[in-house]
Amino acid sequence: MVKGHSECLTFIKENISAARLRSQKRIQSSQTQEITIREKQTFKRLIAFELLFNNLALLLMIPEMFAEVENDLEELKQCFTNLGLTSQQSEGKRSKKGGKGGENHLPANPQRSEALDVLVDFLISLLTKPQSFLRDIANFTFKQFCTEVSPKALANLVQIVQTPNIEATKMLFDEDELEEEVEAEEGDEDSEDDDEEDEESDESD
Questions:
Q1: How far apart are CA 76 and CA 71, in angstroms?
Q2: Do 10 and 45 share a domain, yes or no?
């Protein structure tokens, strides 16, 4: 566990934190507003990944969660690499067709699109975790990438988000019906008890 935690922290420092510092320097030295806006978006995305990795690394120290979290981190490392956030060359060659505010600013490629789909699926999975801080980080991270979410990933997100609500509604109605049945049964038992007491009273008379 300690080794896994140490390796994760090394990855964060050498890849994510280093890229964040480079991005911060480019923002400070930027001479144009357009580049600054795009770079700030990259900067926020790097912060999101940094938070994500650091908090998942903490869970590596919990024995019963180690195997699951270790697999999640390996998948997330590959996802982070494929998104190209650490590539200075990618950052320097923004797509001129991108929208204002830096939307879709990186050249589209299948590998990156697949990485975005994987990231969205992973963030959705965090919403089911009992740790509230993971849900908060998932929300923050999604906000940084939501402008590039594919229709497929968005449809999957809507379906998954809606499903628990439907099930919860069904469970709520089932519980209400169950409570009514229990109350009815208790009422019947009370009536039977009263009848038995009346019969005993008559016999004693």
A1: 9
A2: yes
What digits encode the pLDDT tens for the residues 26-35?
Answer: 888 887 877 7
In the chain, the number of structural domains is: 2
Q: Which domain holds residue 161?
A: 150-205
- Tell me the C-alpha to C-alpha distance, in Å, between residue 83 and each of 78, 91, 139: 9, 11, 19
Residue with tokens 């439907």: 166
Query: Does 144 share its domain with 167?
Result: no
Whether residue 159 sits in one domain with residue 143: no
The secondary structure of residue 54, as a DSSP letter, is: H
What gap in Å lies between CA 150 and CA 144, rounded to an integer? 14
pTM of the model: 0.68
Domain boundary among 131, 149, 167: 149
In angstroms, the Cα distances linking 48 to 41, 42, 73 are: 11, 10, 14
